[in-house]
Amino acid sequence: MTSGFRKTLLVSSRRAALLCLASTSLFLPATAQAKGTLADTIVEMSFSLDYALSGVNQNAISNADDPLTFVVDRFESVTVSSMGDTEVVPNAEDQELLFSVSNTGNDIQDYVLSVESVLGSDFEVENLEIFFLADDGDGVYTETENGREFELYDESRNQVSSNVDGIIWISVRGDMPTQTVMGVESQAEVKLNVTVVNPETSNQTIDKTGQIYMARSSSGEIGSGTTGSDVGRFNLSSANVDVTTSLALHDDTSANCEDLSLLFNRGLAIPGACVEYKYNFNNTDETHGLEDIAFASTMNPNFLFMAADVSGFSDGALQIPDLNTDCAVTSCKVAFNAASLPPNSTGTLRVRVKLK
Q: To 5 degrees, how large is the angle CA 347–CA 348–CA 351?
């Protein structure tokens, strides 16, 4: 008779992109926060299982050496905001419109910038040029940042990059034409376009405010197959026990993540995803039941705890954190103790968490 541990992975391999457009605000938002856990973060989960046969403690089963692992996917999000209108006069040169470009994704982003006059404007601005300056980290615009000044943008020689939560100040400058009709107010609209450069897909141009969710190959290994071990080589009657574990990524929006009756079985490993860990404890021995089962698993700090339940055990007490507990602030330990698993039966533990 043997006991062991194996794991499977139920991650949906979906490639998707979602692009949303919204109108530009006149003022830079007070805060611009990146969307949760950084891309390429490795999220690991492990457990330990102790049990006894006929009052005798047996060797523990654990996946500590081979935990369930997934890697957080890249989430691209950029917000382009005009900082307000500029009052000008005919024939004025180097007049400026100021924009902010905020990286609200979960990874470093590179940008390609372009500018154009909007059709239907009362007049066309001449000699449009783009200048850029990285914010010094305080989110407050100044004409110089720690001695650095605006630099003329040229796509052929400039690379504009932004860290997570970073802001790039963009100055669009142009010359005003001579006004032929005096005393008439007119207006020209100038559009700044920002393209997030992603080497694995075609570029997506974002006009005002946009978000892209994207699945991509991870830098870490997700799942390494099945592992197993013998309970022992003594001539004793020992239970035939194994533990099968799996994880599934559900709805990206975490809709009803705490409702264990709903199974979405799809999604990307991006911030906001609903993640379910499932543990099946299989006692295939026809004679021996498992006694004094003690299971414990501490959730990764990148999670918010949502829900858990057990089934198939003849007794035992489940201990779980409160709903929406931040596992980086409070230890999110899921445990059940003093449980028993009858012969030829299976017990199941399901845990739902939300990726921050």
A: 155
Give CA–CA dist 15/348, Å, rounded. 31
- Tally of residues, the chain: 356
Instruction: Give the pLDDT confidence of 110-152 residue by residue, as tens digits.
Output: 888 888 888 888 788 889 899 999 998 888 888 888 788 999 9
Whether residue 190 contacts residue 115, with contact meaning beta carbons closer than 8 Å, is answered with yes
- The token pair that represents 160 in the structure block: 């504009």
> Cα separations (Å) of 155 from 115, 194, 222?
12, 12, 37
| Residue 249 CB burial class (10 angstroms; 0-12, 13-18, ≥19) | buried
Distances (CA, A) of 229 to 3, 63, 349: 6, 11, 21
DSSP character at residue 155: T
Q: What does the block give as tokens for 7?
A: 């794991």
Give φ, ψ of 133 to 5 degrees.
Answer: -155, 125
Is residue 351 within 8 Å of residue 295, measured between CB atoms? Answer: no
Cβ 308 vs Cβ 320: under 8 Å: yes
Grouping H, G, I as helix, E, B as strand and the rest as coil, residue 143 is: coil
User: If you count DSSP H runs as helices and E runs as strands, how many of each does the chain have, helices first?
Assistant: 0, 23
Nearest Cα residue to 67 out of 42, 50, 101: 42
Q: How far apart are CA 128 and CA 114, in angstroms?
A: 10
d(CA 34, CA 285): 51
**Residue written as token pair 């700090």:** 301
Spatial separation of the C-alpha atoms in residues 174 and 312, rounded to whole Å: 72
Contact status, residue 79 vs residue 30, Cβ threshold 8 Å? no
Q: In the prediction, which pLDDT does 346 show?
A: 93
Q: Write out pLDDT tens, residues 176-231.
A: 888 755 556 788 888 888 888 764 543 333 333 333 333 332 222 222 221 111 12
User: How many Å apart are CA 131 and CA 149, to the nearest integer?
Assistant: 9
Distances from the Cα of 171 to the Cα of 83, 201, 323, angstroms: 10, 29, 46
